[in-house]
Design a protein that fits this description.
Layout (H helix, E strand, L loop, with lengths): L4 H11 L12 H8 L1 H41 L3 E5 L5 E5 L4 E7 L2 E8 L2 E7 L5 H4 L9 E4 L4 E6 L4 H10 L1
Antiparallel strand pairs: 1-2, 1-7, 3-4, 4-5, 6-7
Length: 172
């Protein structure tokens, strides 16, 4: 051994192992995971298939619910009636289950009321502005279409009054 302190430091540095080149110890579980990697992809595929089946199941349930609602509303259309009242006080009552066009002629003008798929709309009118046509279709009890120049009122009666009761509930 040398007596020189600088020399001693060099020898100590050479004798100490180099930590910068040291690798992490090998974990035994990592070796097991690498051996199980083909199975991991199978598990991932199964989870992917389960997710797709879950989404497909939700889609089927949503379509079934929509179909039930359509059937329920179609059944409700049989109970509802379009009431057409003209300027002379004459009234026509037409079930919403009867699709067709119904002309209404009065001294003030002519309107054509159309019933299609359980809804009523003003198909044509010879009034100025055509506001009655622009009001769109109605189908729930309590809804109305009004043609002011011809003094014509089309309203819906019967069926369940779900739309009006929901509005009344909010207003209360």
């Amino acid at each position: 051994m040398s007596i020189d302190p600088a020399n001693e430091r060099k020898e100590a540095a050479m004798a100490a192992p180099d930590t910068s080149m040291r690798t992490a110890p090998v974990d035994s579980s990592a070796a097991e995971n690498s051996a199980a990697s083909p199975y991991a992809s199978v598990v991932a595929r199964r989870q992917s298939h389960r997710s797709l089946l879950f989404v497909a199941g939700l889609l089927v349930i949503a379509i079934a619910a929509w179909g039930c609602m359509q059937i329920a509303f179609a059944a409700n259309a049989d109970d509802r009636i379009a009431v057409i009242t003209d300027s002379e006080g004459a009234t026509q009552r037409i079930p919403l289950s009867e699709n067709g066009s119904y002309p209404v002629e009065t001294a003030l003008g002519t309107n054509v009321v159309a019933i299609e798929n359980g809804e009523v709309h003003m198909d044509s009118a010879d009034c100025p502005g055509h506001d009655c046509i622009n009001q769109g279709a109605i189908g729930s009890a309590g809804e109305i279409i009004v043609c002011l120049p011809h003094k014509l009122i089309v309203s819906i009666e019967g069926g369940t009054d779900e739309g009006a009761s929901a509005i009344d509930t909010v207003a209360s």
